[in-house]
Each structure stands twice: as C-alpha cells, then as structure tokens.
C-alpha cells in the first residue's frame, strides 16, 4: 500500500479484480495454433521459451530434389587390418558414386612404438644375468602385442615373472638403448626415462603400502587420524614454545576476548598474529611497556600503538568482569581522560595503562570497604533504622562514581547535593552509609 | 660488533666462513658480508616508531554539488610532523566503497593520499606496504569517511571542510640493523632508546613532545586543516587523574584500616 503511495499509483485494486485479471490472458494462451491443447498442457500450460520443433519444418521433406541417395551392400577393406580380409557393410551412395577413403574407424588403431634392438646391440649393452636373450625377446614381443599392458603381459609370459620384474627389465633395456643410440649423452639426458630410471624395489614397496592403506579397517583409519592430529599439536606447541622462549608474556586473551574490544577491525589483525603464541600462554603478569617488550609483540614486527594498547588493556582487565571494565571506563570519563587516548605516544600509553591499573585497585578497595562496612553494620542492632528507602541500585551507582565531573570538583563528598536520577541522597564513604540491601542477611534477627 | 644474538639469525661474526650461506651475494670483500649481516641481524630490545596521522578532509561542493557528487574529499596518511613517510612506506592501498570505479586505489609515492568525490560516507581501509628492508608484513588502518558536520544545522559551507584525523604510531620492534641505521636520523622517525651495545651517533635532538603540524615548512595545500596533536596535553591530564586516584586510594586504605580496628564495638551489641 505504502509502496503504491510512494509511486503515486491509484489505490483501487479490489481483490476480485486482481483475480480476474490473470485469467483471461491465460485462456487465450490455451489456443495455440497447430498443436493440440493437451499437448501444450504437457509443458505446463505455457508456450515453451524456445521452440523445440519448428512446425513449418515438419511438413516439408528436407533435401527432396537435390541428390540421389541409395544404400548399397558393398565390400570394404581397412588399413588397420594386415590380412586383406574383405568385409561387407551398407554404404551410402550419392548419385551412384560410392564413398572413397579408408575405413572410418581405422584411424583409431593406435599402438605403442616399441624400440627393438638388434642382436649386436643386445650383445653390447643389454646383457643381464637375470634374463636370457630369449626371455627378453619374448618380453618385447608381448609388449608390442599387448601395447605395454604389463598385467596382461605378466599373465601371458611363459615363465612366471612378476609385473615389476618385467617392467624393470623393459625399462632398463629401453634406457640402455636410448643412451647407447643417442649421439651424445646430453641429448638424451632430458628424457624422463634417463632422468629417473625405474626402481623396482621402490615400486614393490609402494604398491604394498598402497594396498595396505586400501585395506585398512575403519578403526585403523580413525586411529591414524588421531595420531596425526596429536603429532601436529605437539609440533605446533613445540614451535610456539620455541618462539615464546622469552619470559614475561602477558596473559594473552583468546580470540573471543579480543573481539570484544571496541574496534574489532583493529584488533583482528593483531589477534591473529598473536594466536600462534597464545597456545602456550604462560600466565605471567602483564608487563609494563619498558625495555622488555613481550614476546608476542616482538613477533609482530610492525604494529600500531593503539592495537597494542588495546591488548594491554584487555590483558590488564582480563581478571575483571565486564561490569568492572565499564566502571573503569566510566571513572576515566569522570576524570576527564579519554577512554582511548587521542595522542597515543609511548609515554601516553604507558601512563594510560598505569592509570587504568590504579583505577582497578581503587575499585577493588572500594568493594572491600563496602563489604567490611556491610559486615560491621550488620552486626549492629536491628532496630537501627533501615535505609530511608535506598534502592540497591542507586546506592551502588553512587559508590561507583566517586569522580563525578562536577564543577564542584573531585570527590563524592558533595554527592549529597547532586540530583542525578537517583532517589537516595547521594552519600559517599565518609558518612557511614546505610548498608546495601544485598548485604543484609538474616543477621538482623540475631540481635537479642 | 654488537654481541646481540637475536632469535632468527645467529650473530655471525666471522663473515668469511659464513659468507657462503648468504647466497645473495658473491663471496666478495668483507664489506659486503657486513652489509648482508646488517640486513638480517635484528636488534633485540629496540624499536623505532613513526608517529602518523591519517584521516579525511571533505569539502562540500556548494553550487556545483549534484545528487551523486555532493562532496569532494581526500583521504591521506601523513607523518605527524609532516615529514616524508616514503622513507618506510613503499605504497599505500586505499580500499574504497565498491560503488567507486576501481575501488582499490594504489598510491606509490608520497604524499600518500587520494582525492575523490562522492555523496556517501563509508569505511575506508588503508593498507600500508613497507619497503623490503623495513618489514614484510603489511599494516591495516580503518577510517570512517565523514562528509557531514556534527551539528546538522542548515547550510554547509564550501570553505570549511569536515576534518577527521586519527593519531597513531607505527612501531617496528626488533628492526634489522640496516634498517635502523638507515632511518634513525630521519625526522619522521622516533627512536626511544638506543639498543644496548650499539655504538652509534645519537640522533638529532628531535623531541617529539609536541606533535604540532608545521604547515609552513610542508607545503601541502590542505595543511591548514591539519589538526594539532599535543602529547603534553594528554600527559598532563593523565598525570592529574592519576594523582586523584592515588589520593583516593590512600584515603580508602585509611578507612579500611579504621574499620578493621572497629569490629569489636559493633559485635558487643548483638551478643553473640
């Protein structure tokens, strides 16, 4: 509706009218010419996008008057045959002229070119203690006959030799022949057979290993995978410990924590850089940015100061909860300091970190104090007046913000005068405050 | 020769026996061996930093503005002291919004900046590639292009641009000796402290306390809009804040110790 408004179209579409509209065009489509209605229904009721058969073509007969075609039963020969056998087949004769040329399938009769040696060559280069000339001859014949299909050749070979043996003999003969026939050794040194001769032992071993892998049971497969993963892990940890051998690595947060940083884009790259070393995170205390740069930083080679600052901040506050971090940020703001320094030089960053640590200490102390006081006042008489409707939250918030940016200046001492959205009279630590609700357990009853 | 033994390459002090290992040069004189040593040996516990400023300046086109071309803006990376950054940067790649033609723009020489015109605000990714002897890794920066001023009141001015700049420092830790020697005296660099054992002439007395722009010395047409980044200001504020916090901590500690001394009084009433 709104779209129509924007487009300025009239809003007069009644549902009935909408239904009726698509129907008539569909109806007209159902009357195509030439083909019956049911046939069209097969294609889903609509005309096909591409005409599959030109209707006009179905009527005429192609090539009616051009040539005179007959089919004759004629004999033929094939160059692929060596015995001049004459076979017969149907031939398409055009205008009385039979087709010329070789049998059309003769071109597929390919075979491997096998080097053959003369006896002389055999005497000179190819003598082998394990093979007689006769056997070698037989081998080569079979190779030619069977196109180097060694499995078949091995099967047909008169004396029983393994496939590897046959291959070995064949390839070594070939290699020797190549080298012998080559005009100079350098000519033929590029030939793959010369460069890497067939190694029978290796081949046997390889095939054995392959069949072993193939026949592994599922259990064995699983075990192998486990072992490999374990080995990988050990390798990685070894490498990581080698690179992190310098002491005092800060507690490297996992990827999750780093991503919580305010500028995720910025911290992603340093976190990915740090990740390899974090696997062996030796939980050491966070270092100060002095001469001993942490090993993780050193690995970085180049980094932006702000990246590093973010990480240090994360490391420093890793023990604190999210709420505490927020409180720290709030305190920083109250003090008039940028949560992220605007001019992050080395000195500024160092100071910033120190400040953050001190604020953490401060907050911890505050908490301790709160707890102590709660304990203390819980031991007082229960007749002590309850806090004048002090909701928990407002009290907490009060203590949370000791440095309210007021013209009054530092200190919550003046907090009483403030009128932030809190019901309770803001009171700070000076006056013994009413105990926070949560810290007032059943002890009140204990007073007799 | 410095006695440092960094992780990657052992401190090979005898060029003759080890020259064969540095395959890139011929077994020439001792001088070239030395040079190669410097290229691979890294100075532990040393770092060089380059304060930079990166950001955008955008002008409203005023009368010439059309619907799809309302602002003319420039994104750049400059040295905080307006020195020449090509001493370390080989090229800068600015990745713009895909609606731009050839959104990947490469700038091969200083000043590393790019001017364009458009109508929309988006995040520009800047990738800095350093020279080979500086660092193999690239560095990524991100900046949100801002065309419209904060206060959305009425007409924009073609004379006053919207400037957003971010200060940061590129830090190279454990630089190679060759690189270090090359740049340690360059005005764009800041060397906090010489690495131990390296007897080199101290760099000139460039105290980078005030990263103020020196528009007159560096004649960039936009230099009048460059922002000032004063480290001193920030340091002052931080110091003040720390003082406050420390005072507060002292106070709290006192209170805590007071309370710790008190518990006996309150317990008597409840008659445990």
TrEMBL record, chain A:
GO cellular component, as recorded: NuA4 histone acetyltransferase complex; Swr1 complex
InterPro entries given in the database record: DAMP1_SANT-like (IPR032563), DMAP1 (IPR008468), Homeodomain-like_sf (IPR009057), SANT/Myb (IPR001005), Swc4/Dmap1 (IPR027109)
Bias (Basic and acidic residues) ranges: 18-36
Compositional bias ranges of the Basic residues kind: 439-448
Protein keywords: Chromatin regulator, Nucleus, Transcription, Transcription regulation
Bias-annotated ranges (Low complexity): 276-293
Localization annotation: Nucleus
Gene3D superfamilies tied to this protein: Homeodomain-like
Domain of life: Eukaryota
Domain Myb-like: 127-176
Region (Disordered): 1-37, 238-293, 373-448
Molecular-function GO terms, alphabetical: transcription corepressor activity
UniProt keyword Nucleus present: yes
Primary location class: nucleus
Biological process terms in GO annotation: chromatin remodeling; DNA repair; negative regulation of transcription by RNA polymerase II
Annotated PANTHER family: DNA METHYLTRANSFERASE 1-ASSOCIATED PROTEIN 1, DNA METHYLTRANSFERASE 1-ASSOCIATED PROTEIN 1 FAMILY MEMBER
Name the UniProt record assigns to this protein: SWR1-complex protein 4
Taxonomy of the source species: Eukaryota, Viridiplantae, Streptophyta, Embryophyta, Tracheophyta
Gene transcribed to yield this protein: LOC103720534
TrEMBL record, chain B:
Short name of one Pfam family: YEATS
Keywords: Nucleus, Transcription, Transcription regulation
Predominant localisation class: nucleus
Entries under Gene3D superfamilies matching the protein: YEATS domain
InterPro entries xrefs: YEAST_sf, YEATS, YEATS_dom
CDD domains per the UniProt record, alphabetical: YEATS_TFIID14_like
UniProt feature, compositional bias: Polar residues: 14-23
Nucleus keyword on record: yes
Superkingdom per UniProt: Eukaryota
Domain YEATS: 42-186
GO biological process: regulation of DNA-templated transcription
PANTHER family named among the record's database cross-references: PROTEIN AF-9 HOMOLOG
Name of the protein described by the UniProt record: Transcription initiation factor TFIID subunit 14b-like isoform X5
Organism, scientific name: Phoenix dactylifera (Date palm)
Lineage of the organism: Eukaryota, Viridiplantae, Streptophyta, Embryophyta, Tracheophyta
């Amino acid at each position: 509706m709104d779209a129509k408004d924007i487009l300025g179209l009239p809003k007069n579409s009644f549902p009935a009218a909408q239904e009726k509209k698509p129907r008539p065009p569909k109806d007209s489509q159902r009357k195509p010419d030439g083909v019956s209605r049911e046939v069209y229904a097969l294609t889903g009721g609509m005309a096909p996008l591409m005409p599959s058969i030109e209707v006009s073509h179905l009527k005429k007969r192609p090539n009616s008057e051009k040539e005179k075609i007959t089919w004759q039963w004629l004999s033929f020969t094939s160059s692929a045959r060596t015995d001049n056998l004459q076979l017969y087949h149907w031939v398409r004769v055009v205008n009385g002229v039979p087709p010329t040329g070789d049998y059309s399938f003769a071109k597929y009769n390919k075979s491997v070119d096998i080097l053959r040696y003369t006896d002389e060559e055999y005497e000179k280069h190819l003598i082998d203690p394990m093979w007689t000339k006769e056997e070698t001859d037989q081998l080569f014949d079979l190779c030619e006959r069977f196109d180097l299909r060694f499995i078949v050749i091995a099967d047909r070979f008169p004396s029983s030799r393994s496939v590897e043996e046959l291959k070995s003999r064949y390839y070594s003969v070939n290699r020797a022949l190549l080298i012998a026939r080559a005009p100079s050794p350098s000519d033929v040194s590029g030939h793959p057979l010369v460069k890497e001769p067939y190694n029978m032992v290796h081949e046997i071993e390889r095939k054995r290993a392959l069949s072993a892998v193939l026949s592994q049971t599922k259990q064995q497969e699983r075990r192998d995978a486990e072992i490999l993963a374990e080995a990988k892990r050990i390798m990685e940890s070894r490498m990581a410990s080698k690179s992190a051998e310098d002491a005092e690595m800060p507690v490297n947060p996992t990827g999750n924590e780093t991503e919580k940083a305010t500028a995720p884009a910025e911290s992603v790259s340093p976190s990915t850089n740090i990740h390899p070393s974090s696997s062996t995170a030796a939980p050491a205390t966070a270092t100060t940015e002095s001469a001993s740069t942490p090993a993780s930083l050193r690995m970085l080679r180049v980094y932006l100061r702000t990246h590093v600052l973010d990480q240090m901040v994360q490391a420093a506050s890793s023990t604190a909860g999210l709420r505490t971090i927020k409180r720290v940020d709030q305190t920083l703001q109250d003090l008039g300091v940028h949560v992220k320094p605007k001019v992050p030089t080395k000195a500024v960053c160092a100071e910033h970190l120190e400040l953050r640590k001190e604020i953490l200490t401060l907050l911890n102390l505050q908490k301790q104090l709160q707890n102590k006081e709660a304990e203390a006042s819980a031991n007082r008489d229960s007749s002590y007046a309850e806090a004048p409707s002090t909701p928990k939250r407002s009290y907490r918030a009060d203590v949370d913000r000791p440095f309210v940016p007021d013209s009054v200046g530092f200190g919550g001492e003046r907090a009483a005068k403030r009128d932030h959205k809190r019901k309770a009279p803001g009171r700070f630590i000076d006056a013994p405050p009413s105990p926070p609700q949560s810290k007032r357990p059943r002890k009140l009853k204990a007073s007799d | 020769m410095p006695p440092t033994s960094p992780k990657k390459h052992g401190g090979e002090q005898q060029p003759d026996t080890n020259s064969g290992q540095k395959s890139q040069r011929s077994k020439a004189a001792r001088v070239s061996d030395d040079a190669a040593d410097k290229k691979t040996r890294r100075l532990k516990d040393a770092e060089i930093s380059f304060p930079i400023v990166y950001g955008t300046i955008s002008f409203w086109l005023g009368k010439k503005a059309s619907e799809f071309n309302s602002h003319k803006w420039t994104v750049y990376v400059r040295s905080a002291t307006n020195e020449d950054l090509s001493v370390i940067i080989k090229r800068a790649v600015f990745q713009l919004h895909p609606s731009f033609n050839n959104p990947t723009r490469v700038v091969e020489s200083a000043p590393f900046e790019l001017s364009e015109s458009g109508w929309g605000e988006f995040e520009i990714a800047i990738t800095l590639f350093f020279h080979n002897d500086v660092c193999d890794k690239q560095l990524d920066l991100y900046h949100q292009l801002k065309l419209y001023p904060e206060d959305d009141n009425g007409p924009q001015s073609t004379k006053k641009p919207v400037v957003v700049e971010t200060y940061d420092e590129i830090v190279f830790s454990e630089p190679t000796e060759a690189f270090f020697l090359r740049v340690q005296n360059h005005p764009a660099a800041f060397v906090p402290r010489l690495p131990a054992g390296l007897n080199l002439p101290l760099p000139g007395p460039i105290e980078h306390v005030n990263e103020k722009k020196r528009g007159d010395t560096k004649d960039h047409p936009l230099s009048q809009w460059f922002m000032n980044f004063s480290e001193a200001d920030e340091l002052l504020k931080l110091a003040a804040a720390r003082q406050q916090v420390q005072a507060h901590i002292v106070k709290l500690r006192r209170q805590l110790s007071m309370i710790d001394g008190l518990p006996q009084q309150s317990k008597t009433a409840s008659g445990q």
